[in-house]
């Protein structure tokens, strides 16, 4: 029993170095069950495991299973976890505070002379739990903070250099914003670029009233400005603009300016209204939480956390796990992001989708395919969890891996018991329709395999999966760019009550 919690020197490689200041003194580790004791000299302690030199040789003991007595026991200060978070503190801090509440602990924020912040977390019962340094964000290369081998988590909206060590915790998007009183509800990317170039300066050219528009721009948040430049959405020199120091200040002004227009992150909209995007073929996409969660809104991107290629302290690992919890996701929603939870949408709320399908019937897509597809969707609910793959591979992208974890957990818990779970694959419009239909079904089969792999063996045996491929029968966006084609290449999840 207790012996199984001890391991020889081979497992000691799992341990990190001992905290500075641990002296070679005697201690006694007593099993909480009271049936065994280990005496010896402490060699290492990482906050999770003791490594003790005993008369039998070095032993490793799980600290959660024993009580420690003696001068060699590490003090609370020595066992407190220490790590850093690099990124936007306005996101990291609320999540840390929520985690502390979840742990029954309190938070103290210490601001240094140059504005650097340190977060101390402690509980009355356990004493100091963690010290977290909040490192300033490097807009040019946020991942530089973890390349020195330090215990650093990186919060960033930029693409991670290591997707396997990255988890997406919230979703954002580039949106065009206006006042709620402005009747214009949509704009094309080309039109917005012409606004930013000064070629369109009146709302009548966008389908509105004969009124001069006011272009608002913000100078803060370098990473967002870089994203706009990459998309060709940066204002051109010489164009008349109203400048703002911060994005949230600009959002408030635009919300109250009936003739204002701006490009903002979805998370910073506040009370401004997002305008939908129209493609060159006439398809329309609204910016709302579901379209971000399902990846169907163009210019959606994730806020992710990347961990270093080393074993981090237990407190940090538990924090990463907490970020997947409903409590953490509620914080992300409060911050303005679309969360990673699974929402539902009925076919009756997707009129634009049906209109898109009607636009392509008869080209290469037979009416029978659309009828079969809509027959399944009728009376069903689409889940926001949508699956896409890394370019040129059958590996799920970072957001889809998170979706697989969330959906598998929901299936295990019985959230969709007594329902049919349809996995419906779709393709872009490139290539022959017959081949696309076959490929889209193979992708749906790959998603089924990923869901089963994400769950304990046999736990999804009772789930009634139905796999279909419909190729290019239901495009979400016009394929004006390669990124648009990626949006259309997806696997959707629909759930429907079983017929009695």
TrEMBL record:
One of its GO terms (cellular component) is membrane. CDD domains: OmpA_C-like (cd07185). It comes from the Bacteria. Residues 376-499 form the OmpA-like domain. Keywords: Membrane, Signal. The keyword Transferase does not apply. Pfam families: OmpA (PF00691), PBP_like_2 (PF12849). The keyword Cytoplasm does not apply. Gene3D superfamilies: OmpA-like domain (3.30.1330.60), Periplasmic binding protein-like II (3.40.190.10). This is OmpA family protein. It comes from Neptunicoccus cionae.
């Amino acid at each position: 029993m207790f012996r199984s919690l001890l391991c020889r020197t081979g497992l000691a490689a799992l341990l990190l170095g001992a905290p500075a200041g641990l002296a070679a003194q005697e201690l006694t580790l007593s099993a909480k069950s009271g049936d065994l004791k280990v005496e010896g000299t402490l060699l290492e302690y990482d906050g999770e495991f003791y490594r003790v030199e005993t008369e039998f040789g070095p032993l490793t003991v799980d600290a959660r299973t024993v009580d420690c007595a003696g001068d060699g026991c590490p003090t609370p200060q020595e066992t407190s976890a220490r790590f850093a978070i690099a990124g936007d503190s306005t996101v990291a801090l609320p999540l840390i505070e929520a985690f502390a509440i979840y742990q029954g602990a309190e938070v103290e924020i210490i601001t240094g002379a140059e504005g650097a912040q340190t977060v101390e977390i402690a509980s009355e019962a356990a004493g100091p739990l963690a010290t977290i340094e909040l490192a300033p964000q490097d807009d040019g290369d946020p991942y530089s903070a973890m390349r020195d081998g330090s215990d650093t988590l990186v919060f960033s909206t930029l693409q991670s250099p290591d997707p396997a060590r990255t988890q997406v915790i919230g979703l954002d998007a580039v949106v065009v914003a206006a006042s709620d009183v402005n009747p214009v509800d949509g704009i094309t990317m080309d039109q917005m670029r012409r606004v930013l170039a000064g070629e369109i300066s009146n709302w009548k050219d966008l389908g509105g009233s004969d009124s001069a528009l006011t272009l608002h721009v913000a100078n803060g948040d370098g990473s967002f400005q870089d994203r706009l430049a990459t998309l060709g959405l940066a204002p051109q020199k010489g164009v008349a603009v109203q400048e703002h120091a911060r994005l949230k200040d600009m959002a408030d002004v635009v919300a109250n300016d009936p003739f204002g227009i701006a490009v903002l992150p979805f998370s910073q909209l506040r009370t401004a209204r997002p305008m939908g995007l129209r493609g060159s073929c006439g398809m329309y996409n609204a910016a709302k939480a579901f379209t971000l969660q399902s990846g169907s809104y163009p210019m959606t991107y994730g806020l992710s956390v990347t961990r270093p290629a080393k074993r981090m302290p237990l407190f940090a690992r538990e924090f990463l796990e907490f970020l997947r919890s409903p409590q953490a996701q509620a914080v992300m929603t409060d911050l303005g992001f679309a969360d990673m939870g699974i929402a539902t949408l009925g076919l009756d709320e997707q009129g634009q989708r049906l209109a898109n399908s009607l636009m392509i019937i008869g080209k290469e897509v037979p009416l029978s395919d659309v009828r079969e597809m809509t027959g399944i969707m009728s009376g069903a609910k689409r889940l926001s969890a949508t699956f896409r793959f890394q370019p040129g591979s059958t590996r799920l992208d970072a957001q889809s891996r998170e979706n697989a974890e969330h959906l598998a957990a929901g299936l295990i818990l019985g959230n969709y018991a007594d329902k049919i779970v349809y996995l419906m694959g779709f393709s872009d419009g490139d290539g022959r329709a017959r081949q696309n239909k076959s490929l889209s079904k193979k992708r749906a089969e790959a998603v089924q395999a990923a869901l089963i792999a994400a769950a304990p063996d046999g736990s999804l045996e009772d789930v009634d999966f139905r796999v279909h491929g419909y190729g290019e029968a239901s495009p979400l966006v016009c394929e004006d760019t390669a990124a648009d084609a990626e949006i259309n290449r997806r696997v959707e999840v629909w759930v429907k009550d079983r017929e009695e």
